Structure formats: C-alpha cells, structure tokens
protein disulfide-isomerase
Amino acid sequence: FKDTRVNDIWLVDFYAPWCGYCKKLEPVWHEVGVELKSSGSPVRVGKMDATAYSGELKGDLAYNYKGPRTKDDIVEFANRVSGPAVRALPSKQMFDHMMKRHSVLFVYIGGESPLKEKYNDVASELIVYTYFFSASEDVLPESMSLPELPAVVVFKDGAYFTYDEYEDGSLSSWVNKERFQGYLQIDGFTLYELGETGGVCTKICHPLYSLCPKYFQFGHIDGNDYINSLIMGEVTVPSVIILNTSNEQYFLPSEPIETLEQLVQFISSVLNGSAQAYGGDGIIQRIKRVAFDARSTIMSVFRSSPLLGCFLFGLPLGVISLMCYGICTSESDDGSDDIDALKREGLTDEEEEEEEETQCAAELEAPEEGENEEEDAGEKDPGEKKTD
C-alpha cells in the first residue's frame, strides 16, 4: 500500500487465524521483515487479521502479490512496487548493469509521445510482475538499430524484440506475454500466470528444449506431483507434456522422446491437429478432477499419519451414521389429540358444550349396554344350557 499523503509504504500480510497456509507463511514473513529493514528499504512490513480488520488499512495505491511464497520473491516484489512504475536509465553503465541483473528487461526509447503514455499505463498495471525502464537512444549498444522511434523493446534470451502495434495488438497483452523467458522454471504460480496470457504452454521435464517455435512457452517442472493432479494420472520422469492453458487440454507423445527429431514431430502433430487431446475444462472433467484431488488428499493424509486420518474421517462418518440410524428408527407420535384440538378450535362455545354433553352421555350409556349383554347371555334357552 502506498499512501502519498504521509509518504508511507506498507507491505501487509492479511491472514486468518485458522488458515494453514497463513501459519506456514509466518516464518517466511518474519524473514521478509528482517531483510527489508536491514537493507534500508522504505517499505514497512506488518500483518493484520483479515477476519477482524480487513478495512482498516487504506492507501492511494494497492498491489496484490501473485507469486511464490518465498522470502526472495516477496522482497523483490516489495522493492519493485515501492519505487516508480518506470525507472530511468541515464547512462550506458546503468543500462549494462540492469541487463546483467534482469533476465527480462522492458525499455521505452524516445521522447514524449502517445506511445509513452500507453507505456506508463501498462507499467502501472503490470509492475507487480516485472520492471519497466526508459532510456534515450544513445545509451543503447552501438550494434543495436531500431526501425523507428519512439519504440518499446524487450531484452531477453540474449536478443531483443520490438513492439509492433499492427502485428502484436495491444501493448498490454504484448508485455504480458513477453515478460516470460523462452525457457523457465514452472510452478503452480507461473502456470497460473501463463494461463492468464491466453497462450499455449509447453512444460518439459526433458533435456531437449532447444526448439522454441512461436506460440509455445518452454519450461520444466521438478518432479511430477503437480502434473499428476492435472492429468489425473501418473507421469514418468523425464517426459514431455504439452498443455493448452486456455482450455486445460493436454497432449502426450505416443512414444518416449529421445531425439530432437521426435520432439519436433510431436510439436508439429499438436500444431496441425493430428495429436489426440486429453482433458479439458468441461463439467464432467471438472467433477473428475475434484474427485481425484479429494482422493489424493485423503490418501496422502493416511500415508503420513494413519491415526490422524482415522480420526479426521472416522469421527464425522460415525456421527453421521448415528444421526441417520436415530432418524430411521424413531417412532412417529400419535397426532389424534392434535387433530381433535384443531377441530375444536373451529367450534363456538355452545357447540363445544353440546359436544361435551354428547361425550358424557355416551360414557354413561356404555355400562348399561354392557349389563344388557350380560342379561341376554344369562337368559339362554334350555337347549343351549343342555349343550353347555
């Protein structure tokens, strides 16, 4: 949060006391505070209970962190957003220093122009992901030539690429796609960011990654835990998987990839549509993924701590079973009294008195009818007595 009225910059962790991820972040957050304070950063670090004080902290600008929960990544984010959205490169020495420090570098080159205004807006929007700089043409390497000025250039992978409004579309979407290196380490956060760009992501756990065609993002994942949950199966390592982040479809090679030619053939089959697509984001597929994740979570709990798993899942099931048993075996109450009461509510006082008198008369007549029956039973004809 930036509050320009009092010149305060705060990096705040909004947590919930019951949240396991929040508790896991606590030691990392303490290291972040120590690091920023020891480095002389103007950023002040704090934490607030989001369940009680969510509306207490306000500022003129607020940036939400969307990255790995590590000390270095959080500190880098704080240093990036605490400064200006666009930083100036006044000399060649500063330009060379930034080229060595950053793997991806966006630079606006030229004077005042409508393109610069767009660049400043994009920098304010996407500074949570990367740095933005501005420079004059004389600070660039002599070997570098630009077709026209002003221009927006990205330096990465040992080369540079110039933004073309007619070919690349909006500046924001171009920056959002070009902020990734040609080959990078991929985790859950990076994969989510790649999905937001709308591109096609190629994740590789394989030494062959020198080929980089257009529309493909190359990278690697350590281990297969994350990808197993994505394809709902077991992936052997090393292997090559192509994932379309726009619809969550994935492609698997028909045979293990061991040569560059096999890798090129696999990628070409995906591009021309001959490769079989799996997965997707349909309703049935989402239900299957939820069921798979639930089963994987339960199995991991039982593997790590069987007793804890029995307690967590056995106790609720036992309580639910007892409740169901009680409901099924309970006897229904006789509601005749309630029905009579409801009938009486609709009667007047005179009708109620008549009904009571009728009931009393019926009760008095009942014994007399019983006595008449006994007398009739006693007055049997001689034939019946003889039979008796």
Notes: The two ends are 109 Å apart (CA to CA). Residues 34 and 40 are 10 Å apart (CA to CA). The longest helix spans residues 349-378.
